[in-house]
């Protein structure tokens, strides 16, 4: 540990007090124990990072009126903080026409000619993303092999799924209150 629990709390309190936006970025898979499951497909785990970021996120949500934005892993961490579970490995859950979709491999990730990671997503009506892009579908480049498990989101949840991969209904974006 670089910081003691007390130092980490002081640091988190400082961030919450000084920041109006918390941005959570991509990276390693989230440890399944944080959403009540055992490891069945998650890899490259960093439980210490998970605990530190989840603690920061919960502190921010409890003590700030600011905005939280999550990309890839960050989106999934927000889901976990709100009680959602994750699909640990999309390719093993869904039969994908293109096996390189939702693969964490960096090979050809940005090669538009091969279209290896590009796919359509459908945006929910009246979602923030639909209002920003002024359309109901966009093409994205993503390599995440994990996703929020749609079936784990309860109807009374604060989570609203606002973008799904168009073919398999894989959660790509959420909004929450």
Radius of gyration: 17 Å
The run of helices and strands is HEHEHEHEHEEEE
What share of residues are in beta strands?
15-25%
Morphology call:
globular
Strand order of the largest sheet: 5-4-7-8
What is the oligomeric state here?
A: single chain
The total count of helices amounts to: 5
Q: Which range best describes the helical content: under 10%, 10-25%, 25-40%, 40-55%, 55-70% or over 70%?
A: 25-40%
Structure class: alpha+beta
The low-pLDDT segments are: none
Topology, element by element:
Elements: H1 5-18, E1 21-24, H2 47-63, E2 67-70, H3 73-81, E3 86-87, H4 90-93, E4 118-123, H5 128-133, E5 137-141, E6 147-148, E7 159-165, E8 170-176
Parallel strand pairs: 1-2
Antiparallel strand pairs: 3-6, 4-5, 4-7, 7-8
Structure overview:
It is a single chain. With 177 residues, this protein is an alpha+beta fold. 28% of the residues lie in helices and 21% in strands. The chain has helices spanning 5-18, 47-63, 73-81, 90-93, 128-133, and strands spanning 21-24, 67-70, 86-87, 118-123, 137-141, 147-148, 159-165, 170-176. The strands form 3 sheets. It has a 4-stranded antiparallel beta sheet. Strand 1, helix 2 and strand 2 (67-70) form a beta-alpha-beta unit. The longest helix is centred in the N-terminal third of the chain and has 17 residues, at 47-63. The mean pLDDT is 86.
């Amino acid at each position: 540990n670089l910081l003691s629990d007390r130092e980490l709390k002081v640091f988190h309190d400082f961030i919450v007090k000084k920041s109006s936006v918390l941005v959570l970025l991509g990276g390693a898979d989230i440890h399944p124990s944080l959403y009540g499951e055992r490891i069945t497909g998650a890899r490259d785990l960093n439980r210490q990072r998970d605990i530190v970021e989840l603690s920061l996120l919960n502190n921010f949500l409890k003590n700030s009126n600011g905005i939280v934005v999550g990309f890839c892993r960050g989106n999934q961490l927000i889901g976990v903080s709100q009680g959602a579970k994750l699909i640990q490995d999309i390719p093993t859950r869904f039969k994908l026409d293109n096996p390189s979709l939702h693969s964490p491999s960096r090979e050809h990730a940005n090669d538009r000619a091969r279209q290896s990671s590009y796919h359509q997503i459908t945006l929910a009506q009246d979602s923030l993303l639909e209002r920003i892009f002024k359309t109901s579908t966009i093409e994205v480049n993503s390599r995440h092999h994990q996703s929020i498990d749609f079936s784990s989101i309860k109807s009374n949840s604060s989570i609203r799924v606002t973008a799904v991969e168009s073919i398999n209904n894989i959660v790509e974006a959420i909004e929450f209150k």
